Structures are given as C-alpha cells and as structure tokens.
Amino acid sequence: MTLPPGKLFLVAALLFGAALVQAANPSGPSPSGNRQLAAGPAGRTPAKPIQSKFSKPKPGSAKPGHRAIAAVQKNQRTGAPATDDWTLGNDGKVIYLTFDDGPQPVFTPKVLAVLARHRAKATFFVLGKEAAAHPELVGATRAQGHTVGNHTWDHQMLTRLIPRRMHEEIFNGVKSKCFRPPYRDTNAAVAKVAAANHQRQVLWDVDTKDWEKPGAARIERAILHGAYPGAVVLMHDGGGNRTETVAALNRALPQLRARGYTFRALPC
Ligand SMILES: [Zn+2]
Predict the structure, then answer these.
(1) pTM of the model
(2) Structural domain of residue 61, as residue ranges?
(3) How many domains is the chain partitioned into structurally?
(4) Catalytic annotation on 66?
(5) What number is the average pLDDT over the span 121-125?
(6) Considering the chain, what is the average pLDDT of its residues?
C-alpha cells in the first residue's frame, strides 16, 4: 500500500501520539509486551514449582491454574515500570518463545532443530551449572540466532536464601541482559540484585505447563490458545524428558505461522 505524503504524515503523527500516551502512562496496559517485565515495586510474585526435576513442595502454593498470567496482570495493575520496551516488529504479531532449565544434551538440540525447521528464534534461560557443563550447547544456541538468559546457577528459590547466597545464585549465572527467577520466585531484593548485575527480570505470559508432561496435544493447545501478539511463552528444554515439548512445538509453530505470527528472540 502506498500512501500520499499527507496521509503518511498523519499516520506518523498518530503513531507518535500513541507513543507519547504510552510513555506518559507506563503502568497502563500495553500492547507491546511489557507484561512480562517484573522490575519495580511489584514485590513478591506468587512462586510456584515449574519443573519436575526441580520441583519442591512449597507450602501454601496453589494448584496449577492461571497463576502465572494472574501474577503478570497484578504487576500491570501495580504499575511495575518498564525499564524499556521489547520492540515488536511488523504488525506486532510476534511471539517470544522461551525455554528454561537447559542446556540439556538430548533435548536442547532437538528444540534447536525444530526452531530451525520453522525459522523461529527463541530465548533460552539457562542454568549456570548446566551451561558450564555444556558450553558447546550454549554456543550452538547463540550461533543459531537465539538469545540466552540467566536462570541462576542452580535453580534455587531465591527469596528463601540468605542475601549472600541469593547474590551468588544470580551473579554466577550466565552473562546476559535478562534474568528469570526460578519458580517465578522473586521480590524487591531479588530484582535489585538482578539490576545490580545489569539484568532485567523477564517472567512470562503463557505457561504451557509442559513440565507436568500432560501430553504433547495439551502442550500444543496451551501454546495455540495462549498465543497473542507480544506474548512470552514458557516451555522447558531442560529439567526432565522434554519429548512432549519438542513434539508440541513442532506442531504448534506452523499453525501459528499460518495465523501470521513470527517468532523472535528477546533482546537478552
Ligand atoms: Zn526453571
């Protein structure tokens, strides 16, 4: 579509105006994907075990449900300020796939192969300990155009650690601009240490619950039903057998692409 110069100016003015409104109201609902940012005064977000291998019974934790999304909406309401913005391209139909708890020698390569097959980029929140054991997998991940985030050294519940240990868990993770707290267990102190490590907290919008191994079909549905422009989707390449995740991803990606979505790595 070609617009005459006058209309182009009008479109540019409208876009600029929208940007101004957004800048003036950073706590308001944003279509550009700030929901997953956990910086600022959001305080403690509900923690819940999210991996089979790393799951620990947590007193008072609720049954699986929509807690992840609820937590994000709560952050939005409390006005957790975005430190900056994830940039969405084209018409905004971008999905940010994220994979936690790797690298893992069997399943990380399988996830990478599926992503390559469907021309998708993603973000891998790796454990420092696993990255140290399998640096070649981290290298392959980056070489294929994906980004890598810090998921701490050893997947502890950070808010339960003494400050020195919490600090070590975050600082000993991989070098990155992004940080994701294990079990979504975070608070102002954790956010502050992450910021001191020059890392921005990244949570998620859509929890596929692939760690529960509910069957590939259910994971696929969780991806397809949860998808919306700018959504950050949580899956796992480590922490257990991820055969179902790999199969679900392979089926979901072409369907999302048919709906007009593209898949990008977060700027980590
Ligand atoms: Zn994890």
Answers:
(1) 0.71
(2) 33-263
(3) 1
(4) no
(5) 98
(6) 77
